[in-house]
Design a protein that fits this description.
The chain is of the alpha+beta class. 21% of the residues lie in helices and 33% in strands. It contains 5 helices and 21 strands. The strands form 5 sheets. It has a 6-stranded mixed beta sheet with strand order 6-7-8-13-9-12, with helices on one face. A 6-stranded mixed beta sheet has the order 14-15-16-21-19-20, covered by helices on one side. Bound molecules: 3-(2-carboxyethyl)benzoic acid (3EB). The site of 3-(2-carboxyethyl)benzoic acid has 13 residues, from β12 and β16.
């Protein structure tokens, strides 16, 4: 597991000790998990794209558009009370366009929207509208290259009008993307789609002025080529996106689960699913580094765990496999196939 292992397994905490280095402007942003009691200090900074909190309900701060809450609580027994802080290294401007709250600097755009599902006939229609608006916004503001999307909505494994809601979401996203660009499957963003216990379709995303490189995982069938047994439209995301900036690169790693080929592995065994997921992450990192002659290392991870599972066991295995000093967050959420128990996303950085 060489590329995944960070450093000393005895090393301490899982929160970042510092956030961005403001003097650095050869990469446009940095993201960090910061202790919640640092909130005031973080918000005093005037180059923050976003400060995200995790709780039972989604929440948008009407007074401070940088702040919002995602309705995915930290897992019981694994709480670090973290803020996810996105900090720009360049001046930021804020805006609100077509129901989307956004922050941007000269290289990239960070944006979020929360849709009330009751205003649509179904999740397919809500997702279609969200992605149409996202597409329009990114083109109009001239950040046309989607790097990464986060998608959160309730009842992900529940049926709606005869279709599992995750599949309805995938269909709506597909319809919106194909509408814009029939070639979209070579420029797909990295993504995750996670089930909440909170109402509303919450999406946040990163887009850039210049493109990233789509990367697939040699151990997995590309999601956009999943066979039809997983739904009428395949999920439109890439396994990762590599973005080279002037001074460094970021690897946005999609939600990764215990899927080999296109098949879910190790039903009902969370630790075996965790090991398989780490094998997938390792294969992806090795592939990206070889293929792109890069030297990306894992900088942080976020793990989503179904609510009925024991976080302590997962924590211990992560300590063993990745070391304790890799910044990480364990959130309680549902996974997009009912036989999957957990999913891990990550951010890689080089050099
Ligand atoms: C998978 O590999 C697990 O639909 O945006 C992972 C990441 C998953 C993103 C998405 C779904 C999505 O198919 C599920």
């Amino acid at each position: 597991m060489a590329p995944l292992r960070q450093t000393d397994p005895e090393a301490m905490p899982s929160l970042s000790t510092s956030i961005a280095d403001p003097a650095r402007d050869d990469v446009p942003f940095e993201v960090a998990y910061v202790a919640a009691d640092e909130r005031a200090r973080v918000l005093a900074d005037d180059t923050v794209f976003a400060v995200i909190e995790f709780a039972d309900r989604h929440g948008l701060d009407e007074a401070d558009h940088r702040r919002f809450t995602i309705g995915l609580p930290e897992a019981e027994g694994a709480k670090v009370h973290a803020l996810e802080v996105w900090r720009s290294h360049k001046p930021v401007t804020y805006d609100y366009v077509d129901g989307i709250t956004l922050a941007r600097n000269e290289d990239m755009l960070f944006a979020r929207l929360l849709l009330e599902e009751s205003r649509y006939t179904d999740l397919d229609a809500a997702t279609f509208d969200a992605y149409q608006r996202i597409g329009r916004l990114t083109r109009n503001l001239n950040y046309p290259h989607m790097l990464r999307t986060w998608n959160y909505f309730p009842g992900i494994n529940d049926p709606q009008n005869g279709l599992e809601r995750y599949r309805a979401f995938s269909q709506g996203r597909y319809r919106a993307l194909v509408n814009v660009n029939p070639e979209f499957e070579t420029t797909l963003p990295a993504a995750c789609a996670i089930g909440t216990r909170a109402p509303g379709l919450l999406i946040y995303f990163l887009a850039a002025k210049t493109p990233g490189i789509q990367i697939e995982n040699p151990r997995q069938v590309s999601a956009f080529r999943y066979p039809p047994q997983y739904g009428p439209r395949s999920p439109s995301f890439s396994r990762a996106v590599l973005k080279r900036w002037t001074g460094a690169s970021h690897l946005f790693i999609s939600g990764t689960a215990s899927i080999v080929g296109h098949v879910s592995r190790h039903p009902r065994d969370p630790l075996a699913q965790l090991d398989e997921t780490l094998a997938n992450l390792e294969a992806l990192l090795n592939h990206a580094n070889r293929f792109l002659q890069a030297s990306i290392r894992l900088a942080s991870i976020k793990l989503y765990l179904r609510p009925d599972l024991r976080a302590a066991d997962v924590q211990q295995r992560l300590d063993e496999r990745l070391g304790r000093d890799l910044p990480r967050l364990l959130l309680t959420g549902d996974i997009c196939r009912d036989d999957l128990l957990l999913e891990i996303e990550g951010l890689g950085v080089s050099p």
